[in-house]
Fold:
Amino acid sequence: MIILAIESSCDDTGAALIEDGKNILSNCLSSQDEVHKWYGGVVPELASRRHLESIVPVIRGALDEAHKSLDDVNGVAVTRGPGLVGSLLVGIMAAKAIAYTKNLPLAGVNHLMGHLLAIFAEQEVAFPFIGMVASGGHTSLYLAEGFTVFHPLGKTRDDAAGEAFDKVAKYLGLGYPGGVAIEQLARHGDPNAIPFPRAYMAKDSLDFSFSGIKTAVVNHVRAHPPSNDGMADIAASFQEAVVDVLVDKIIWAAQRHKVDKAVVAGGVASNNRLRERLQQRGEETGIQTYFPSPYLCRDNAAMIGVAGYHLFNEGRKDGLDMSALSRWPLEKGLNP
Structure:
């Protein structure tokens, strides 16, 4: 079964062809980093306009890279939400047009489900496992018991981890995307130089909060204007504080639910310090840890194709009246 997958939930336009839910035949992406870097974050109106320009070339590119045509496609999967409505609608309308003209089944995919299943494009992970999505818009923990069975365990109460990275980077003048900029600078700093706070919430909570650490960085810089060397210490100490919380919550969730596997996905999962620390803690506690390759951590269409395959296997078929959803918590199931 070959699925054409489309992703346009935020600022990247993606299209991919996935065979049997795991073989990536192509995975094309048009990035908008150059568009939004001047603003230090994504501007929704600019994002949707760039999607309109990119969607057809990206889909054609995915077909050409896979040496396939639309006649070879057996189904169309598209991100339905959550995300920016204007961006989502571009991908959804393209998917509807293809599904209608080629008489193909259509599936609207939850973006978070796509992230959690991205790992299956590269390797098999036995269920159950603890799944974390850490990105610019989400920081959530799930107990995954099957390809379409996810139980929410915790989520951010304010800023997502990736959002905190972007906001701190913008404040420090490091550029966009912030996660990459902070990680690069942090390599030259001391992660223990500044005791930034770790927000663990209540002891029995698996929720997250990153607004406090962002404020702590701002207050520190105002009180102690840094030199060039001091900037690296700030970046390293900030990164370490965020990584500490993410790693501890994943390990706690696995131990609490007696699960010996953890999968981390989303843009923040590309952070090498997070990968290093979680792998170390996993070895110490007997928990196997899994990360998709960095190109599968950022928003991409291949992960949507993996999720779409498993939805089709369960008989999912959405109609041409399918709408975009700016909010679509995975805890509400796979249907809004």
User: Anything to note?
Assistant: The CA atoms of residues 117 and 329 lie 16 Å apart. The longest helix spans residues 228-256. The longest strand covers residues 23-30. The chain has two domains: 2-116+296-332, 125-291.
